[in-house]
Design a protein that fits this description.
heterodimer, A: 230 residues, alpha+beta, 2 domains, 23% strand, B: 179 residues, 5 helices
Chain lengths: 230, 179
C-alpha cells in the first residue's frame, strides 16, 4: 500500500486532461475501474483500491486527496495451482482410472485429449481451494505537475498501471526516462538540437588489459564484488 | 468507449546511454564538487554510497556489482570504468542541512529504488504523511536539478572538456590505490 518511508518509484508524465480530484468525476472514474474480487474459477483480477485499505473501493475527496497529491492503489489478486500439487493429483487420478479400466477387463490407456481434460478439471477444482496471492501497489498523482508516481519497479505492475490508468482516465502515461525528462528540461532551448543529435561518449579511458591489471593489484579494503551474467 | 493508451515505441528514445552517462557524471561530480544549489538558494550535497553496478555496452556483457567497503573509492570501481563499462545503478546519499536521504538510482529509466526517508515530524498521522510527501517531492526536484546540471554541460560546448576530466579522474588512482 502507500509506504512512504521506504519505497521504490517510477515517474510517469500524464498526457491528456484529467478531472480535478475535487470533482465527483474523479472518484467515479476510479470506482468504475475498482477492484472486484476473484470469481470462483478466475485466476487473476485487478483494479483500484484506496491507498489506506486494500479492502476499500469507495472513493471520495477524503479518501484520495493528500495535500497537493492524490493517492490510491492498484490491487492485483492472482491464484495459481502449485504445479507439483497438480501433478500429484493428476497421477492419482490416472492411476485410479487405469485401475478401474483394468477391473472391467480391459486395461486402458488415457489419451492425450482425456489427459488434458482431466488436468483442466483438476485445476478448476483446486483453484477453489487455492487462496489468492494479494498485491497492492501505491499510486500517487501530482495533478499540478501532471506526474504519476508508481510505487513498484516490476515490469508487469508498471504495464498494468499504465493500461488501467489509461483506461480509467482516457489519458496516456509516458515513463520519465532520462531521455524523456531531458526533452522536457531543454524544450524550447538551443540544447534541443544537441539532444536530438546526441552520440554516446566513452567515459572510460584505458584498455581492458590495463583495467584488468589495475584491478588485479587492488590494495586495501576491497568491496564485495559480484560478476553477474546479464 | 474506452481509449487505449497508445504504446510508446521506445521510452528511452534509442539513447540508452544517456542515463548511464548521467550517473557516471554524477559519481565524478560527487567526488570533485558534490554541492548543488536550486534557484531559490537551497543547497544539497550528493555522495555516491555503498552500491555500484556496472554494465558492459554489449547485451551479452557481464555486470559488475560492488557492495560495501566504500566501493566508489575502490580500485575495482575505477577498473570497471576504465574497461569501458558504464554505471547502471548507484546508491546515492543526498544530504540537506542535517537531513539525509538514501536511494538507489537506476540509470537507464531514472528509477528510484529503496528510497529511505527520515522519520517525519508532525503531531498527527496526516501531518507526518504530508511531511513525507513533501520530502519525496523534494528528492525528485533535487534529482531533476542534478539531471538539468548534467544536461547543461552535456549538450553544451564544454562537454568534450568535461568528458576528458572524467576520463582523467577514472585513470587517476582511486582512494584505495593511493592508500
Amino acid at each position: 500500500m502507500l509506504r512512504l518511508r521506504s519505497q521504490s518509484v517510477r515517474r510517469f508524465r500524464v498526457l491528456g486532461p484529467l478531472p480535478s480530484p475535487y470533482e465527483p468525476a474523479f472518484a467515479e472514474r476510479l470506482h468504475e475501474r475498482r477492484f472486484r474480487p476473484l470469481a470462483p474459477h478466475e485466476e487473476r483480477t485487478y483494479g483500484w483500491v484506496t491507498a489506506d485499505n486494500l479492502l476499500v473501493t469507495r472513493f471520495d475527496v477524503d479518501t484520495v486527496v493528500r495535500g497537493e497529491m492524490v493517492a490510491f492503489a492498484l490491487r492485483i489478486d492472482q491464484r495459481r495451482v502449485p504445479p507439483r500439487l497438480l501433478k500429484a493429483h493428476l497421477e492419482l487420478e490416472l492411476e485410479a482410472r487405469t485401475k478401474a479400466a483394468g477391473d472391467g477387463g480391459r486395461p486402458g490407456r488415457v489419451s492425450r485429449e482425456e489427459r488434458k481434460t482431466m488436468r483442466e478439471e483438476i485445476t478448476r477444482r483446486l483453484l477453489l481451494e487455492t487462496p489468492p496471492h494479494v498485491q497492492a501497489h501505491g499510486v500517487l498523482l501530482d495533478p499540478r505537475r501532471r506526474v504519476l508516481y508508481v510505487q513498484s519497479l516490476s515490469r508487469r505492475v508498471l504495464e498494468q498501471v499504465q493500461l488501467l490508468f489509461g483506461d480509467t482516465f482516457e489519458v496516456a502515461l509516458e515513463a520519465l526516462t532520462p531521455w524523456r525528462r531531458a526533452q522536457e528540461i531543454v524544450a524550447g532551448t538551443d540544447a534541443m538540437a544537441a539532444l536530438e543529435d546526441i552520440r554516446r561518449t566513452e567515459l572510460g579511458g584505458a584498455s581492458e588489459a590495463l583495467a584488468a591489471a589495475l584491478g588485479a593489484r587492488s590494495l586495501g579494503r576491497a568491496p564485495a564484488t559480484e560478476e553477474v551474467s546479464s | 468507449m474506452i481509449a487505449r493508451t497508445p504504446p510508446v515505441a521506445d521510452p528511452r528514445g534509442g539513447v540508452d546511454f544517456l542515463g548511464p552517462e548521467f550517473l557516471t557524471w554524477l559519481w565524478w561530480r560527487s567526488d570533485v564538487a558534490p554541492g548543488f544549489e536550486h534557484a531559490d538558494g537551497s543547497a544539497f550535497f550528493i555522495h555516491v554510497d555503498d552500491h555500484l553496478e556496472f554494465k558492459g555496452e554489449r547485451a551479452a556483457a557481464r555486470r559488475t556489482v560492488l557492495r560495501a567497503g566504500v566501493p566508489s573509492a575502490s580500485s575495482e570501481a575505477r577498473a570497471a570504468l576504465r574497461s569501458g563499462k558504464t554505471l547502471a545503478a548507484a546508491r546515492i546519499l543526498l544530504a540537506r542541512d542535517d537531513e539525509e536521504v538514501r536511494f538507489t538510482l537506476k540509470a537507464e529509466d531514472l528509477d528510484v529504488a529503496s528510497l529511505k526517508l527520515p522519520a517525519p515530524e508532525g503531531d498527527t498521522p496526516a501531518d507526518r504523511e504530508r511531511a513525507l510527501l513533501d520530502l519525496m517531492g523534494q528528492v525528485m526536484d533535487d534529482l531533476d536539478l542534478c539531471l538539468a546540471s548534467f544536461l547543461d554541460v552535456r549538450l553544451g560546448s564544454g562537454w568534450d572538456a568535461e568528458a576528458e576530466r572524467i576520463r582523467a579522474w577514472g585513470r587517476a588512482p582511486s582512494q584505495d590505490e593511493r592508500a
